[in-house]
Design goal:
By secondary structure, the chain is an all-alpha fold. The chain contains 12 helices and no strands. Helix 4 packs across helix 5, helix 4 runs antiparallel to helix 10 and helix 7 runs antiparallel to helix 8. It is elongated and about 80 Å long.
């Protein structure tokens, strides 16, 4: 059995190496292209820029070719990656997770083939599931961390952007010109997002629709408040400068309250993250290091019902964690 498995393991090692190199190169070139595109758009905001108007950044809708629940899931992942500031598509993100899973799986197969013992086919299946769990959890934590960091930066920049827009409005600029001024004065990410709002309006989109797209693209509640304020003021009238001045004060107050709540709930949030990730990682590492611990129980009629009950309890626990550590304020 070992003589048949060894060539297969070497083939998987070669494939995993090629896939890993291709994935890293794709991420490197994608990040470089995105940086160049953003810098080009910001440079073209300057009055003396000789080039033509920049192209709009449009993300293809992954759910346009896939219907049902899968299509909505792909669209949600696409929006989530965009809110994290990533230019990768859900398919490429899946390729990254799959590449990491294959690499971990190959290493575990090498260790198991050298150690011997047990049903190799069952052990390979268990280690494959464990590798997917570890790689998927790592990618999920990485994207979530990037999204949290970007949202935090947007919320910190939003009051400054509203102050710039407010001063421009009081100086006599129209609102779109004020947003254009804020896009040029502020850095990424709020400057780039405001620049996209100006670009969409320039190419014929309604200003309110562009702001709603901005709120949906960033996932920030402050951006939703800003879009709602502009929409209400355009229909009811009034002094927009005073509205934005009050909104900036409200956002600063919410930001202070958010930091205070997160400081008070930091222990609970850390415990929730640990209790959410630890079972997956623990089961995955046990499956990688000693798959016989689970494969020897597959024939037991009580094993699979217990697995189903534990999975349901874990899902209920995740819902409870989310309701406890996420506050509405």
């Amino acid at each position: 059995m070992g003589a048949l498995v060894t060539p297969f393991v070497y083939l998987l090692v070669f494939g995993a190496t090629v896939l890993g190199i291709q994935t890293l190169a794709g991420l490197w070139f994608a990040a470089s292209d995105r940086s160049q595109a953003v810098n080009r758009r910001l440079a073209m905001l300057q009055p003396a820029a000789p080039e033509a108007t920049p192209a709009l950044v449009r993300r293809p809708s992954g759910g346009a070719f896939i219907g049902g629940i899968v299509g909505r899931l792909v669209q949600a992942i696409d929006v989530y990656c965009g809110q994290a500031g990533l230019s990768v598509t859900p398919v490429r993100l899946l390729v990254v997770a799959a590449g990491g899973a294959v690499a971990i799986w190959v290493v575990s197969l090498v260790v198991l083939s050298s150690g011997g013992g047990g049903d190799m086919t069952a052990n390979a299946l268990v280690t494959l599931v464990a590798s997917c769990g570890i790689s998927g959890t790592a990618v999920w934590l990485w994207v979530g961390r990037l999204r949290t960091r970007r949202l935090k930066k947007i919320e910190e920049q939003m009051p400054l952007a509203l102050d710039v827009i407010n001063r421009a409005l009081r100086a006599g600029h129209p609102v779109i010109s004020a947003v254009h001024l804020a896009a040029g004065e502020l850095g990424d990410p709020i400057g780039t997002e405001f620049g996209l709002v100006v670009d969409e309006t320039t190419y014929g989109a309604d200003f309110k629709d562009a702001l709603h797209s901005f709120a949906h693209r960033t996932g920030s509640q402050d951006a939703q408040f800003f879009a709602a304020s502009i929409a209400i003021q355009s229909e009811t009238g009034g002094n927009l400068a005073e509205v934005l001045d009050g909104l900036a004060s409200v956002i600063r107050g919410r930001l202070t309250l958010t930091k205070r709540i997160k400081a008070l709930a930091s222990e609970g949030r850390a415990s929730a993250i640990l209790l959410s990730v630890l079972p997956i990682l623990l089961v995955s590492f046990i499956s990688l290091m000693n798959p016989q611990f689970y494969t020897s129980k597959f024939s037991d009629p009580v094993f699979w019902p217990i697995v189903g009950v534990v999975t349901v309890l874990y899902a209920i626990g995740q819902v409870m964690f989310y309701r406890i550590i996420n506050f509405r304020y």
